[in-house]
Specification:
By secondary structure, the protein is α+β, with helices and mostly antiparallel strands. The chain has four domains: 384 residues, 3-Layer(aba) Sandwich (Aminopeptidase), CATH 3.40.630; 106 residues, no CATH class; 104 residues, 2-Layer Sandwich (Alpha-Beta Plaits); 221 residues, 3-Layer(aba) Sandwich (Rossmann fold), CATH 3.40.50. 32% of the residues lie in helices and 20% in strands. The strands form nine sheets. A nine-stranded mixed β-sheet has the order 28-27-29-30-35-34-33-31-32, sandwiched between helices. It has a seven-stranded mixed β-sheet with strand order 2-3-6-4-7-9-8, sandwiched between helices. It has a six-stranded mixed β-sheet with strand order 19-25-20-24-21-26. It is globular and about 90 Å long. It holds the Pfam family Peptidase_M14. Keywords: Signal. GO terms for molecular function: metallocarboxypeptidase activity; zinc ion binding.
């Protein structure tokens, strides 16, 4: 009978709301508390009740600033700006007495994570720090809208209960983790909301235009960026995270409309092994508070299913490797104001109420479990340094001898994670790599962030479970294509690096010069080249090695700039090249003669002229917005190259003659008409370079634009004709997914796609089951998987058998043009620095690939 009453309450009160009546604050707030009337309600500032409209980011900021001005319980701080220049803010909410001692409280929490001093701290009166993060995905808005209620409640609620909460905790509210996405989504749903709410799922309100509001400006999922830190939102947030060292972090999300409500813990077998069991048990204990609160309002929920705590780059999992407890909340999404679901009509206010309810239950748990949370954090770091002391490995050393920029970028990320770095005392040779004090970094393991270091460096290939909510491997030195090695003693440890300094380049040699040259090995060499090309400076590329008259050896892909015949005077050219070298961290060499010592001469036919790339990327429905966003970010934000975003409907009527390169990101392009496909084929035949990634390569093959053949078959473990338990269906199918793993490939360093690389073995990230067949032409397989390619992560036996010795890149000649198919993602989440150059080489050198070396 009790369950029946709860269900009736759920349908009639929670979901439906008679005739979609707009609830008042009493629908959300605890009935037993009174509120200070001097604190304005959201409606008094916004002009509408919470849940009546979707709050826009500017409206949200307006309300927060008003409450900050009126209340002495909270302080609003801006911690960064988004790509679209929107403020990222954090509210610090606590008692007046705690506000007067915030510096001391911060210092105590810093000490709590330092095993050298944490044992001396008394936890009896130390406030717990609770971080509440809302709506990292912009089209999951119930979190941000619930933050309005959280701020009002914490600023205005009266009585001993709230006084005790504010005395025992410091609450950090991040009300909108992704302002750009939130603004995009709220504008869409508000613009398509009628005076009379339409609940039909086919209604335009529930169907955002591509790419939707989930992502940030460059279409990145910010909930995957806690480790890579490639975006200003993440970098600003992490600085605040480590400034405060929170004990509990809540991460408020949404899921499918036909779902209910989820809270962690997730599937026990899918926790990362580096996370202590005490974390899971404490998460379970906190979960009882959520269950009790949701029982009270009659909301359905579940836990320990579907979601996991494996990838440390998510908001609810990163705390777990930092001595805190991360809690994921997933609320069924109305995706608008009210929508039909299998559970009845799901209203926006109902979704907000669940998020606010679990906000309060999290705070209740933080108060009641305060000392346990604090002790958990202290013990986590104490155990970490003890484990580090027992570890036979004492540190890792890494560098990129011919490209210090990639090593710098990894070191920069590690310092943001509060990881201590050193330089080696002197040159060290390990295997084939030499590590120098100038270019190498050492990461000692005996430090508080021991477990996070392991998580970033390990190459794990065995797992308790074969299903992953996200990727199964992210080994950072492999992602950056760095030489690295473990160190078994501390003898090589040199001085500590207080602040990582960005490498600068230089121009060697005087002026006037006959010509200038720079090698393609530097990470930002493509940016330097493009800067020069945009200024009209003529450039050439060496397709064979040579030695300068001064004795300097230059490899494949070296860029040559003649001093004569340029739009700048010799003096101005010299000055410009000096600036470019310094900005982009490359070494430019002044050459005194065209008569090189060895190899080709500077006027050789093997010095091919380069044209300035004019690049467009086809986007829209069917295209993977994550893959497209990574490409857009790479070219626009990192390499300073304008990229035309060409919608498929525009493509159908656009002239392609203005472009040298067209990019088809992972996805399908079925909105292109038959005439457009013919136009695309004719453009390639006329000499264009068509670059495709992932499933776009398959789409091209299906449309006979390029010659690509894919491997098929189930490999080992074929279960056809046998009987398997129906209950195992989901897990069995899921085990065949490649959520994300790292594999070894072999690169032809003499091929234009291999220019700039110095070692043939290259680690590549794969999250696709596509496998490209090699072709008979031995010159047409520039990048291939090795015979035993798995380096880190999970892959099923069937899929593993299929990719061994397969092709990772295919180049197909179509008339005078080239179609380059890259099966995997060389730009994954913007931190896979090691394979970015494969993609950039396709743009800069695709047109010079010989037809004899193509399929």
């Amino acid at each position: 009978m009790k369950k029946l009453l709860i269900l009736i309450h759920l349908v009639c009160v929670g979901f439906c709301l008679p005739a979609f009546a707009q609830p008042t604050l009493s629908y959300y707030l605890p009935a037993h508390l009174s509120y200070d009337q001097k604190i304005p309600t959201p409606k008094q500032v916004l002009g509408y009740e919470v849940g009546e409209w979707h709050v826009t980011h500017d409206q949200l900021l307006n309300y927060l600033r008003v409450v900050d001005f009126v209340s002495d319980r909270l302080t609003l701080t801006e911690y960064g700006r988004t790509h679209e220049n929107r403020p990222l803010v954090l509210l610090t909410i606590t008692s007046k007495e705690n506000h007067q001692n915030l510096d001391q409280i911060k210092a105590q929490h810093q000490q709590l994570t330092d095993p050298a001093v944490s044992g001396k701290l008394s936890l009896k009166d130390m406030p717990a720090v609770v971080w509440m993060g809302y709506s990292v995905h912009g089209n999951e808005p119930s979190g941000t809208n619930a933050s309005l209620l959280a701020v009002y409640h914490l600023a205005a609620a009266q009585g001993p209960e709230i006084d005790n909460l504010l005395r025992q905790t410091v609450i950090l509210v991040d009300p909108s983790i992704n302002p750009d996405g939130l603004q995009r989504f709220s504008t869409w749903v508000n613009a398509n909301r009628g005076k009379n709410l339409v609940t039909d799922p086919n209604h335009r309100e529930f169907s955002e235009t591509w790419p939707g509001g989930r992502t940030n400006h460059y279409w990145f999922d910010l909930n995957r960026d806690w480790l890579p830190l490639q975006h200003p939102e993440s970098r600003g947030r992490l600085a605040k995270f480590h400034e405060w060292k929170p004990n509990l972090l809540t991460d408020h999300h949404e899921m499918g409309t036909n779902s209910t409500f989820f809270f962690q813990p997730g599937v026990p077998s899918r926790n990362h092994p580096l996370t202590p069991l005490s974390n899971f048990k404490l998460t379970q204990k906190i979960g009882t508070y959520h269950a009790r609160a949701l029982d009270k309002i009659g909301s359905l929920y579940y836990t320990e299913q579907d979601y996991d705590d494996f990838y440390y780059g998510k908001g609810s999992t990163y705390p777990d490797v930092n001595g805190a407890i991360g809690i994921l909340f997933e609320q069924a999404s109305s995706r608008g104001h009210a929508q039909e679901s299998v559970n009845g009509v799901l209203t926006f206010p109902f979704t907000i109420r669940n998020q606010f309810t679990t906000t309060l239950s999290s705070l209740e748990a933080a108060v009641n479990l305060r000392e346990e949370l604090l002790e958990h954090q202290r013990t986590f770091y104490q155990q970490a340094v003890k484990e580090a002391a027992r570890d036979k490995v004492k540190g890792y050393i890494f560098s990129a001898e011919q490209d210090p920029m990639r090593a710098y970028h990894l070191a920069e990320i590690m310092q943001q994670h509060q990881i201590r770095l050193h330089r080696p005392k002197q040159n060290i040779t390990l295997g084939k790599a030499t590590y120098t004090p100038e270019n190498a970094f050492i990461v000692p393991l005996e430090q508080p962030q021991y477990k996070l270091i392991l998580a970033m460096f390990e190459k794990r290939t065995t797992f308790q479970d074969s299903l992953f909510y996200d990727i199964s491997a992210w080994t950072f030195p492999l992602a950056f294509d760095l030489a690295y090695a473990p160190l078994n003693n501390t003898q090589a440890f040199g001085p500590r690096v207080e602040k990582v300094v960005r490498p600068t380049g230089k121009l060697e040699g005087g002026s006037p010069a006959y010509a200038y040259a720079f090698e393609w090995t530097g990470y930002y060499a493509p940016r330097a080249l493009y800067k020069l090309q945009r200024q009209g400076i003529q450039t050439r590329v060496a397709t064979s090695p040579f030695t300068s008259p001064e004795g300097k050896e230059f490899g494949y892909g070296t860029i040559l700039i003649s001093a004569a015949g340029q739009p700048l005077s010799p003096e101005a050219l010299h000055t410009r090249l000096q600036a470019v070298a310094q900005e982009d961290g490359i070494t430019l060499h002044s050459l005194g003669s065209g008569l090189s010592g060895k190899g080709i001469k500077l006027g050789s036919p093997n010095m091919l002229g380069l044209s300035t790339p004019k690049v467009a990327m086809v986007v829209g429905d069917g295209v993977g917005y994550l893959d497209a966003g990574e490409i857009w970010h790479l070219l626009d934000d990192r390499f300073g190259m304008p990229l035309t975003l060409l919608n498929q409907d525009r493509f159908n009527r656009a002239s392609l003659n203005r472009y040298t390169t067209l990019i088809l990101p992972d996805g399908s392009f079925n909105d292109l008409t038959t005439a457009s496909r013919d136009k695309l084929r004719a453009w390639v035949q006329a000499g264009g370079t068509l670059l495709a990634t992932g499933n776009a390569v398959k789409w091209l093959a299906d449309n006979k634009i390029g010659d690509f053949t894919f491997r098929s078959g189930t490999g080992n473990g074929d279960t056809r004709g046998s009987q398997l338990a129906y209950a195992d269906l989901q897990n069995t199918q899921g085990a065949q997914e490649i959520g994300g793993a790292i594999f070894e490939t072999r690169l032809d360093l003499t091929h234009p796609l291999g220019y700039g690389y110095t070692q043939p073995l290259l680690s590549i990230f794969r999250n696709s089951s596509l496998s490209l067949e090699r072709v008979a032409n031995p010159f047409a397989n520039p990048l291939m998987y090795t015979a035993e390619p798995l380096q880190a992560g999970y892959i099923s036996k069937q899929n593993y058998a299929r990719i061994k010795n397969s092709a990772a890149i295919g180049v197909s000649a179509v008339g005078n043009g080239r179609v380059i198919g890259i099966i995997d993602n060389p730009n994954f989440r913007a931190f896979w620095y090691g394979t970015n150059k494969l993609f950039l080489n396709s743009i800069f050198f695709g047109s010079i690939i010989s037809g004899a070396s193509a399929r």
